Every structure is written in structure tokens, then in C-alpha cells.
Amino acid sequence: MQAFLSIYGMADWILRGVSMVAQTVAVGGALYLPFMLAPLEGPASGRVGLWRFCRRVLVSSALVLCLGQALTAVALTAFLMGSTGADLATAMSADAVIFDLLSACAALALASVARRASGATAALVLLSVVLVGAHAGVTHAASRSQPAAALLAAETLHLFALAAWIGGVPYFIASLRMLEDRGQRAAVAARFSLVSLAAVALLVATGVFMSVPYVGTPEGLYQTTYGLLLGAKAVLLALLLCMGAVNLHAVRRQRRDGCAALRSLPVLAEAEVGVGVIAILCAVALASSPLAADTRAARPDASEISKRFELAWPRLASPAPPPLAADGLRGPSPASAAGGDVFEDETARSPFDIAWSEAHHHYAALFVVATGLVALVSRSGRLGRLGRRWPLLFLALAAYLFIVADEDAWPLGPTGFFESLANPRIAQHKLMIALVAALALVEWRAQAKKFRAAWPSFIFPLTIAGAAALLLTHYGHSGDKQEVLVEISHTPVALLGVIAAAARWLELRLPSPALGRVAGLVWPVAFIAAGAVLLLYRESA
Amino acid sequence: MAWRARVLSMILAMILLAGSVADAAAHASLVSSAPAAGAVVAGGEVSIELRFDSRLDPRFSQLKLVREDGAAAVLRIEAGGPSDALKATGTGLREGRYRLHWQVLGVDGHASRGDVAFQVGR
Ligand SMILES: [Cu+2]
To answer: What percentage of chain B reaches a pLDDT higher than 70?
Structure first.
């Protein structure tokens, strides 16, 4: 039980993320099938297969949602029983458990309605309303000290708009690929772009409406974790809108000069899905952060923030570690003291810790900048085959990190390699480093065209996107001042990572060489910019 | 129909990505407390009030007072207060450092916990 209680927070977070994505796709499908696909007229070529495929996606996402919500309810029940000694009936009567179970039942019903061939539009829409309503029941809007009906309504509409737009995109991609009749493709594209526009307008309007009481003051936007996450979400929305604008342009143009412009549409939509998922994860993180308006903890002021971005020479000299104590330990570091005596300040970091962390950030930044530069210059063809070897820079970064990441462990410290893996913190570092190395090797071989299949080259942008998502949302949400200062410097890096990942994906996938060339310039520039921000990173004031 | 596999694998990747997000987050957070963190209060009877940014389910809220020698007492939470606050009274508090440990469940299903350290002096 103790083991479960310690991982509960993490398990709950994962289940919420999975459920939110699944709900968006399921509700998106429940709106897409009756309102986008059903009204199509004319020849049925490709339509039967498309309908069947979309229904399968809808059913699968509804089943994932059902499972996710049921597990959320089970985990919360177990957590309440284990941590408060409540009995099963009491634990299950908690509001959140009831809402989760309601949503699981609605998802199951949605799956079974969608499985039937005849489109029961009313049932699909009704169940979507139940799903979104149950979700809104466990949000900030519902849990505020004085819940307001207007905020609850805004939250519900916000979730609906999200599903109609982002949740509809996977079905839209399938429609563009599977419909054989050009007129039908054009009809779906025109209708979906109209729905997307309306959904975006609704998202922005409800979002702004909710953020006024949630953020409180303008300072809340940059002085709190909540505000920074909200800002990141706004940037992601802007990114989605840019891609949407290109899409809209393509839809307009194809009406004039035939089909060619439509071919880049599904690829842009793929990138849209990726950015949309990261925005959803941001929203999940937002839902579990304290509202900026309620954050009373010490906030960094403008001068403290600008100090973090002051131009200064990067710290590339590795600091000398303080001498070891007799038992080979360096006294309580923040990580090792966790779970220990709460009478001590666990968040205190020694000057050595700070110097060490800054040096690491700066070395990593140099590798990122170098990668971007080499990739950019190699586009001119001047570096020849050498230019395609930029993944080796990542390999070098992995090797460097392996040596220095944990100074107490092999090869720098007295603790042996396998011995050190027993420490979860060190094991986690080594796993990340192994991932970087694996990524470098795969991308190296992909650049050298050693793979027959195309998919290994997609690993690079997908990993960057995953890392960016993690960087955006992994904060502890203590609202603590130091945490906000770290987040302020890391959020731009994460957003540039999203841009780089999307651009690289588009470069690889776009059929149009002109658009692909633009994307191929964007990602190295985003890399260089991210590296530059990281080079400025400092923890000491 | 290789692209079909791609759409499906993309959805799988979406879910995996969602799952890879680390670190627990807690929502219901302390807005104010009496005694305040780090405060020095007079001994004997100390009235305690914690205010949160979310409505709580009182059945799953806990308050525990821990003395620096490790002795701990579970406090009885007063019924009938506002839904976003916990009230209790600590009795017979001697001089020394104390830690008030709280665990709550917000109605949005986010459980959270924390500590308020204070001191009983003269
Ligand atoms: Cu960092």
C-alpha cells in the first residue's frame, strides 16, 4: 500500500493525460461522423471504408477513455482508503470518483452506440454532452470556493470546441486520404475548416473569459506557474492558427486550380494533431496547478526575472566539488534529504549545486546551437556528407552527460556504475542519457540513408516533441518562487522545441518542395534560438 | 493502406506521449494558514485554520500535529465551517517546534498534502 501511495500522484497524472486525449478524439468523432461525413452526397467510392475506419477510431478512443476513467476512479478510491482509512463505500462516494465513473459509463455507451452501423446522431451528441459535462465537474470551475454557473458553462464550451477542432483532425486526415471523389474531399475540407474557425473563436472567447478571474492580475501571467503555462498554451494556439491559416489557404486555392494544393493538407493536419496534443497536456497541467489568482506564495518581481536573462558569459568551467565526507557522502543534497526531516529546508541548494547545474545547461546549450548551425549550413550543400553527420554531436553530448551528470558515481566518483543504478535519481539520469544516445544513433543512420523504411527518421521530431511536452509540464507546481524562475527560462526552450519538431516533421513529410524547404530552414533556426536561451540560463541571481 | 497504420500509430503516440509526462501535481493548495508558517505562538491552546483555493471533501481531510521529538496527534476537524477551510484546535502545546501536516481532497479529485512549520514560545 505504501508503494502505491507514493506512486499515486504520478499514476493519476498519467491517467488524466491519457483520458483527456482520448476524450478529445472520442467526442471529436461523435461530432465528426454525423455532421461531416453523413451529409456527403454522390458516389460511394471510398466512403464505406472511410466510415468504417472513422467508426473504429471513435470506438477505440471511447474504450481507452472508459478504461482511463475507470482506472482513475479505482486509483482514487484505493488512495482514499489507504491514506485516510475510509471504507470502500465512503471512498466511492467522493465527488470525483462519481464523476469519473459517470464518464467511464458514458464512454462505454458511446463506444457501443458508435459500433452500430446506423448513425444515431442524437445518442452520439447526448453522450458527448454527458462526457464533457462530467469532465467539467472536476475542473477549477467546479471546485472554486464559490462555483459560478458562467464559469462552468465556459469550461464546458471550451472542452466542446477543443474536441470539435483538434479531436476532429484525425478523422479529417483519414477523409482526405480515403475519399476518392475530388468533390467530396473538397466538400469535407470546406466544411471542416468552417467548423474549425468557429471552434477556435469559441476556444479563445471562453479561454479569455475564464482567465480573467483565474489569473487575477496581469502580473499573475508571468509571476506564477499557472500564468506561464497559460502563456505557453496561448503560443501553442498561435502556432496551430498559423498551420490552420496555411490549410485554409490551400482549401481556397484548390477551388480555383484543382487538387494539387490539397495534397499538403493532411500532412499539415498531422503536425496540427501533434501540437494539439501538447496543448492538451498543457491544459491537463493547468487543471492541476493552483490558480494564479490564489497563489499567495512569494513571487519573483520584474528585476529578479530580468536578472535571469541578463547577458553574461556562459559558465563552462566545471566547478570543483566540495570535499567528500568520511562516509563518501556530500551531506544532505536536496534529493537525498527528501522524505527526511521536514524541519530542515529541503529546497536549499549549495553554491556548488547551482554552479554544477549552470555548467551543464551551458554545455548542453552549446551542443544544441552547434547542431542547429551544422544542419543550417549543410543545407547549402557546402559541408557535403559531413553536414549529414550532425547527429554525432548528440552522441558527444550523451557521452559528456554520462561522464559528468552524477559526480558521485563512476567514472568521476567512488560509487561503481552498477552500484549507482540502485539510486533512482541516478538511474533516471542514465536512462535519459541512453535515450539521447539511441536517438543520435538512429538519426545518424537515417541521415546516412541506411534505413530502407521511412519511419526511423520520424523518431527524431517525435522525440523532440515529447521532450518539449515534458519540459513544458513537468514542474512540481508548488508555486514556489525558484520554480517559477526556472520555468520562465525553460518555457521558451520548450516552445522552440515544439516549433522545431513540427517543422522537421513537415520537412520530412510535405509533398510540396517549396513548403518543405521553408520548414527545413525553420527547425535549425529554432534549435539555435533554443540553445541561445539555454546559454543564458542561470540559477544564481 | 500503409497510411492507415500511420494514423493509428499516431494516436498511439499521442497516448504514449500523454503518459510520459512525469511528476505529480497537486491542486488544492494552501492560501493562508493560522498559525502562519514560521510563526511563533503562545502555548497552551492554539486555534488552527487552514484556507485552500478549492472546495474540499471534509471526509477525506486530515490534520496532524507533529512535535519535533516525533510525537504526533491527529486533530479533530471542526464540522460546519466553510467548504474551503479546515479548522481545529491544538491543546496542551508545550514550548518547541511543531509541524502541522495536512492532507486534503479537492472536489476536483486532486489530493494534496503539505506542512506548516511553526513554533510555540513564550
Ligand atoms: Cu533545466
So the answer is: 75
Q: Which residues of A touch B20 (CB under 8 A)?
A: 466, 469-470
CB pair distance less than 8 Å for A10 and B23: yes
Q: Which residues neighbour A420 within 8 Å (Cβ) at sequence distance 6 or greater? A: A406, A408, A409, A410, A413, A426
Q: Could you give the CA distance from residue A17 to residue A248 in angstroms, rounded to a whole number?
A: 30
* Residue of chain A whose alpha carbon sits nearest to that of B56: A143
Q: Which of A265, A288, A425, A508 to mutate to test the interface with B (most CBs of B within 10 A)?
A: A288
Q: In what order do the strands lie in the sheet with B30-34?
A: B30-34, B44-52, B85-93
pLDDT digits (tens, 9 = 90+) for B26-78: 456 777 787 888 888 887 888 888 888 778 888 888 888 888 888 888 888 88
**Among A57, A91, A289, beta carbon nearest to B11:** A57
Question: Measuring CA to CA, which residue among B122, B103, B105 is closest to residue B113?
Answer: B103
B74 close contact with A: CB closer than 8 A: no
Q: What mean pLDDT is predicted for residues B9-19?
A: 40
Beta partners for residue B88, in sequence order: B48
A13 in B contact zone (CB under 8 Å): yes
Q: Does A250 have pLDDT greater than 70?
A: yes
Separation between Cα atoms, residue A250 and residue A262, nearest integer Å: 6
Question: Across residues A423-445, what is the average pLDDT?
Answer: 75
Distances (CA, A) of B121 to A193, B93, B98: 68, 10, 11
What's the rounded Cα separation, in Å, for the pair A225 and A22?
A: 26
Exposed/middle/buried for residue A438 (C-beta within 10 Å: 0-12, 13-18, 19+):
middle
Contact yes or no for B103/A85 (Cβ under 8 A):
no
Determine contact: B71 vs chain A, CB below 8 A: no
Chain pair A-B, CB pairs under 8 angstroms: 169
Question: Bridge-partner residues for A409, per DSSP?
Answer: A415
Model pTM? 0.81
Distance from CA of B65 to the nearest CA of A (A): 13
Whether chain A has a CB inside 8 Å of the CB on B32: the answer is yes
The span from the CA of B24 to the CA of A13, in Å, is 6
Over residues B93-121, the mean pLDDT reads 84
Please give the DSSP secondary-structure letter assigned to residue B77. Answer: P
Alpha carbon of A527 to ligand 1 centroid (Å): 16
| Listed ranges A38-47, A312-321, A327-336, A379-388; the one with the highest mean pLDDT | A38-47
A 242-271 residues with CB below 8 A of B? Answer: 270
Q: ipTM of the assembly? A: 0.75
| C-alpha separations of A300 from A308, A351, A353, A430, A494 in Å | 11, 20, 21, 33, 21
User: Is the Cβ–Cβ distance between A171 and A57 less than 8 Å?
Assistant: yes
- What residues 78-117 of chain B have any CB closer than 8 A to a CB of chain A? 82-84, 97, 99, 103, 105-111, 115, 117
Answer whether A25 sits within 8 Å of B11, measured CB to CB. yes
Separation of alpha carbons A524 and A281, rounded Å = 25
User: Is the distance from CB of A483 to CB of A227 less than 8 angstroms?
Assistant: no
Between CA A67 and CA B63 the distance in angstroms is 33
Q: How many CB atoms are closer than 10 A to CB A321?
A: 16
